[in-house]
Amino acid sequence: MAPLAEQLAGKRVALAMSSGFFGFYHHGGVLRALCEVGIRPCALSGTSAGSIVAGLHAAGLDPDQIQTEMGRIRRADFWDMQFPFSRHGTGLIAGGRFGALLSRILPVHRFEDCPIPVYLGVYRIRDGRTLTLDSGSLIEAIRASCAVPYMFAPVLIDGEAYLDGGLAEKTPLAPFIDAPDIDAVLVSRLPPREDTGGKARKSGLFSGLSFGLDTPLEERIERDRRAVALLRERGKRVHVLAPSRIWLGPFSLHKATEAAEHAYRATMTLLTSPDAKLGCPDLA
Length: 284
Hints:
By secondary structure, the protein is an alpha/beta fold. The protein contains 8 helices and 11 strands. Helix 2 runs antiparallel to helix 4.
């Protein structure tokens, strides 16, 4: 079988990036590999960690710029701790510094000004629904998509309170189902926090987070499977890229460059190997 990069040559490819705690460095490495082999996404989607890279690339940053900017991030750039029960909502971190960081990095601040269409997954608290945002403030949408419960305060958009989109849907694929100008969809998929590859979970401040709002893992995976089935019914190819990952958290950002490089090298292997199934699990 021809390498995946050859199979997708000349195709109009959308890239969907999944949720996964502090996995945006990994997504950045995946994106860099795709662009290096000539696969430049014509549309993007992302949830939580995926929303950061999707938003940055859609707004006009190339993969090298994204890696440079993310490599500069330090915990102080987003760590504006507050009393957990404040006027900003329940959450250890207010999110103002994160918004200021995005404002500095993003070339444009609204969806409508992005050179590449982008869709970001969020969780609406009022009714427990997952939505994809594609208009208005890009900064607030990314903040909302990344608002891990109890860690970040909820984000208000047009009077509605939102949290991390990964609570109910791991990968935002629905925007691509009926899109007439997409031939294939690639999924940059991070393993869920429940999946430790057989290794014991490390103890720490965020290691035991479990949220009453969460949709069960099996249901989130099943939603992705249903979306993939619909994509294929519409004649679109779907490939899942899930190379191994170096796990990061807010206290291990010194590994950021290593994590991005690891994802880049592993993805290059997936894209150029004759065995296209290597590291590409099926969501059928």
